[in-house]
Amino acid sequence: MAKATASFVRCLAARCWDILECTRCADIRQAHAMEEDLIEYAPNIPDNVLELIFSYLKLQDLRNCALVCKSWYRFLCDENNEVWRAQCLQKVPTEAFKNDLLSVVPSYKAKLRAFFHAWNPFDCSRHVYIKPNGFTLHRNPVAQSTDGSRGKIGFKHGRHAWEVRWEGPLGTVAVVGIATKDAAIQCHGYYALLGADDQSWGWNLVDNLLLHNGDAHGIYPLLNNAPKYKVGERIRVILDCDDNTLSFEKNYEFLGVAFTDLPDKIFYPTVAAVYGNTEISMVYLGPPLDG
């Protein structure tokens, strides 16, 4: 069986090489004819052969392969197959699997997606560093400074959710929310930096205030004697770029819409903290589940 599979892969590789050579020689008509033959044959390739072929491809190539035919699309939609497992274990740091941090994203593909959306080590305060797991930031004990970090990928379309977990004391400022690239990520003093200008929107977990453009926009959630955040509780941020709203959940309980009428801009997951040695983890979840 292994010998037959290897022979098949060699034949398929040779066919793809012929197409490439025809393209280089400007024999576009022949290349297109070969492509049509290959696409016609593609749905008949066994899953074990696809697994072998796809294991050598880059992520961008896998995305293109999903568009070839229904069979390949079906195969790559299995987010726990060996292809996604290999990609995940290759790219996601080993430290990220040593606790329950990624338990909220059960599939290998979802874990991989979360890693590409994690904190950006090149877009954070100089007093912050990203830990080896790739998902957790650590704020150094620097006096009179408010420090933040943004995620690697921003959003302008669709609906997105991510989970934030504060691991350590909150101090006087602990804000979670969104910001554009134009929002400041560090400032002198202890200050609610996220929500301090018109480029950021935040929820201060210390006093339950919503913040934007330097102003408090009321208590959140809208409950009598709303309980304060306790260290370790899971905060889920829900950004709806279609309805231009920002909402939050705490421990899987929806707290209501926090901000409406968000502008048509690219928003990044963002936090701001002041307490020394505090750590904040962020895991991107993808589109939120309704209900």
From TrEMBL:
GO CC list: SCF ubiquitin ligase complex; synapse
Keyword terms of this UniProt record: Neurogenesis, Synapse, Ubl conjugation pathway
Pfam families linked: F-box-like (PF12937), SPRY (PF00622)
Source species, domain of life: Eukaryota
Domain F-box: 39-87
Localization terms from the record: Synapse
GO biological process: negative regulation of nervous system development; proteasome-mediated ubiquitin-dependent protein catabolic process; protein ubiquitination; synapse assembly involved in innervation
Transmembrane intervals: none
Pathway(s): Protein modification; protein ubiquitination
InterPro entries per UniProt: B30.2/SPRY, B30.2/SPRY_sf, ConA-like_dom_sf, F-box-like_dom_sf, F-box_dom, FBXO45-Fsn/SPSB_families, SPRY_dom, SPRY_FBXO45
Annotated ranges, domain B30.2/SPRY: 97-289
Reported function: Required in the presynaptic motoneuron to down-regulate the levels of wnd and restrain synaptic terminal growth at the neuromuscular junction (NMJ).
Family according to the record: Belongs to the FBXO45/Fsn family.
Subunit field text: Component of an E3 ubiquitin ligase complex composed of hiw and Fsn.
Protein's recorded name: F-box/SPRY domain-containing protein 1
Gene source species: Anopheles dirus
